[in-house]
Amino acid sequence: MSGFKEYDNYDGLGLAELVQNREISALELLEEAIDRTEHVNGELNGVVCKFYDKARSAAARGPAEGPFCGVPFLLKDLDMQMNETVCTNGSSLWRDAIAHDDNTLVRRYKDAGLVIFGKTNSPELGLNPVTEPTAHGPSRNPWNTRITPGGSSGGSAAMVAAGVLPIAHASDGGGSIRIPASCCGLVGLKPSRGRIPHGPDKGEGWAGQSTSHVVSRTVRDCAAMLDATAGPECGEPYSAPHFSGSFLAALDNAPRRLRIAFSREKWGLGEFQPDIVAALDQSVTLLSELGHEVEETRPEFDGTAGASALFTVICVSTAHKLQLRAEELGCSIDNLDVEDGTRMTAERGLAITATDYAKALHFNHQLGRILGRFHEQYDVSIAPTLASPPVPVGYISEASAEQYGERMFGYMGDTPVYNQTGQPSISLPLHWNDAGLPIGMMFSAAYGNDALVLQLARQLELAVPWHDRRPPLWSGDKR
Fold this sequence. Notes:
Blueprint: H1 12-20, H2 26-44, E1 47-50, H3 52-61, E2 72-76, H4 104-111, E3 115-120, H5 154-161, E4 167-172, H6 178-184, E5 187-190, E6 211-216, H7 219-229, H8 247-250, E7 259-262, H9 274-289, E8 293-296, H10 303-329, H11 340-351, H12 354-377, E9 380-384, H13 401-411, H14 416-421, E10 425-432, E11 438-445, H15 450-463
Parallel strand pairs: 2-3, 7-8, 7-9
Antiparallel strand pairs: 1-3, 4-6, 5-6, 5-10, 9-11, 10-11
């Protein structure tokens, strides 16, 4: 059993500084993270693939001299290939799929000095905003273990929120970084489309709607990780506008007086619940007190058509992924062992025509134009990340066909819009409700303006600090 009591006092960059100054070793940090994982994972089910000995060997050799030198790290178990480890994609269908190399992002994580010791729970193929796959069972929220940590990066968020580690990999195709960040009281940035590479085996995810980054407890870890991993690789189909500076260094400067738009009405289907609207109003007041100009307004577009376009892309992409797996296994797609929801999604994808798919892409591009013009007038938009506080485990996954739509849209916010347009969008833990559950607020800016989103996030973090808030289930408590 390890015993680094000061572990809770540091974020990722802080821990790396201790390693660099030889005040603690990478192996000691790793043992602390492993010990904490074993302490809470039985209740949270956040880590589903463990490779402790592999990580110990890497830590003993000495981590790379990067900005996160020696910091323990977890990968989300979805499309993340790490040599000699399994990537199940939250499904029994890939339970034996061992990678034979690292993908580009994993190499960049290792070059940054991170010590990777496991993979975290994800819904099958990342298709749900909760993390309850049949293959691994549900993940739970350390703020209340009856409640979901969100999805699809729920396992990563649960472990960071419980203090197992300060930062973990996450990915977002419709809100899957920001939703768990909101549910678990964390920072969760979805970077601009093309900011983070997908290679070497593919150029994009979900027609550009999906990207990777992290969930973290501090804004500076979020920014530093973007510095460490951003940038195109050879053969990329596109990349985000070049940023010549450092995202971390940009935090030293407070944002200028911003024009910020907000709306008390959802842009898509459903409505914000009253405690969510109350939290939004508190955020608007805070922004005004910080000197920003805040106006109630919204861009005009067809939310129903937007949801249809999003769903079309996801269905077709799911069908394609299952077709590839069926070819690898030498069987028919009909014979694949997947969850009912995954099968339904794929079947819908197989039935979608090429012209309907092109229509969905056209809508997404037009939506990008609408939001682009909107952000010529308003620097930032603010909205609740979710329409409700985090829901109980099983609330969505166990819903009947009649209940499913109402429950889904009563929980989901407007996160997918920014996947469809490619804009940077961050969830910040600005509020907790009377039940002690986190409520995240989402801040979004024009495509490529990740630095501005991070600057505003840092300003808010200083105004209402959240780093020292602890959930009832905390991995650093007496073991």
